[in-house]
Specification:
Length: 316
């Protein structure tokens, strides 16, 4: 069957890379990128692009009617740090956007839906080391509890309407093609840009704050592997834990120093993102992803750092 894939929120950190990868697999015209703004990245303009606002149901309905997508990726979201500045807006966008897309997916008989969750679904009472798939979950950020509620809705639509919805709990994502926007893990991208530009970086999380992270190449591969997995292999319809690599700012800075020996890191104190980071897992157990759809990471801290610096140097 030939696919028609609609990506909503295509201009963001994940969307920018996913559009290119899916177009390489399925052909340019098979992938419709959409976002609330026209893309800064010209690569989207090489294929179909539509302005779409997830909060505007009529607008979304027209989009589904026009393209009759077989697969939908809903990537539009407000992340953790911005979510704390605009809590009601974050809840509205993250929740209403999801429910509208799930309803339209049922109405238009979409074959598969992808929706990203996050390690932010865990909270201060969740085990912080090797956080398991199933445990106490008491997220205390709007982003975190909108993702947790969203996971429940995904499982519900699968059970009640048979919608084939699939999801991953992404760790902090690190890539060179697009910048993240408004998250707690963003430092791990900004540090590379500053290391190359100025040789210095002022981190907003403390030196020993460990968080689960993942290189974008692995995140895109995980997303496509999950979407390609046979439906009967999937035992989780809320969202799969995805571990990646866990490191602290000190460890990342030490790795960068191997390539840029004069690199220096400093730390800003009392940033509100510290409390968010402290409530999240330090490492994740993703054994369900290994077991159900054969997941394995390729990029460790060393390989990711080398690849990030190499690619950023080439585009500078
Ligand atoms: C954030 O920091 O808010 C995101 C996430 C971990 O979901 N990168």
């Amino acid at each position: 069957m030939s696919e028609k894939i609609l990506i909503i929120g295509a201009n963001g950190q994940i969307g920018t890379e996913l559009v290119t990868t899916l177009r390489n697999i399925h052909g340019t015209d098979a992938v419709i990128a959409s976002d609330i703004n026209t893309p800064a990245d010209a690569s989207h303009q090489n294929g179909p692009f539509e302005i779409a606002n997830v909060l505007d149901k009529d607008n979304l309905h027209q989009l589904f009617e026009k393209y009759r997508p077989t697969q939908v990726y809903l990537l539009a979201a407000i992340l953790s740090a911005i979510g704390e500045q605009k809590p009601k807006m974050a809840w509205d966008l993250n929740m209403t956007g999801l429910l509208q897309v799930l309803d339209l997916a049922v109405e238009f008989k979409v074959t598969k839906v992808f929706w990203p969750s996050s390690i932010a679904v865990f909270g201060p009472h969740s085990p912080q080391q090797q956080t398991p798939q199933y445990c106490v979950m008491d997220p205390n950020t709007v982003y975190g509890f909108s993702k947790l509620a969203g996971e429940r809705w995904c499982e519900y639509y699968h059970a009640k309407y048979g919608l084939d919805v699939r999801s991953l709990r992404y760790p902090g994502l690190i890539g060179w093609k697009a910048n993240p926007g408004g998250g707690t893990t963003d430092y791990a991208v900004h540090i590379f840009h500053e290391a190359l530009k100025t040789g210095k970086y002022q981190g907003f999380l403390s030196a020993e704050t460990a968080l689960p992270m993942m290189y974008m190449n692995d995140a895109i591969r995980a997303t496509i592997s999950l979407m390609d997995a046979p439906a009967e292999a999937l035992t989780i319809r809320s969202s799969y834990n995805l571990a990646g690599i866990s490191f602290t700012p000190t460890q990342l800075a030490a790795e960068i120093k191997k390539h840029i020996p004069n690199f220096e890191i400093g730390y800003i104190e009392n940033d509100p993102r510290q409390a968010i980071a402290d409530s999240w897992p330090k490492s994740i157990d993703d054994s369900y992803a290994h077991k159900d759809w054969g997941w394995n990471i390729e990029y460790d801290l060393q390989k990711m750092t080398a690849d990030m610096l190499e690619n950023l140097k080439n585009i500078a």
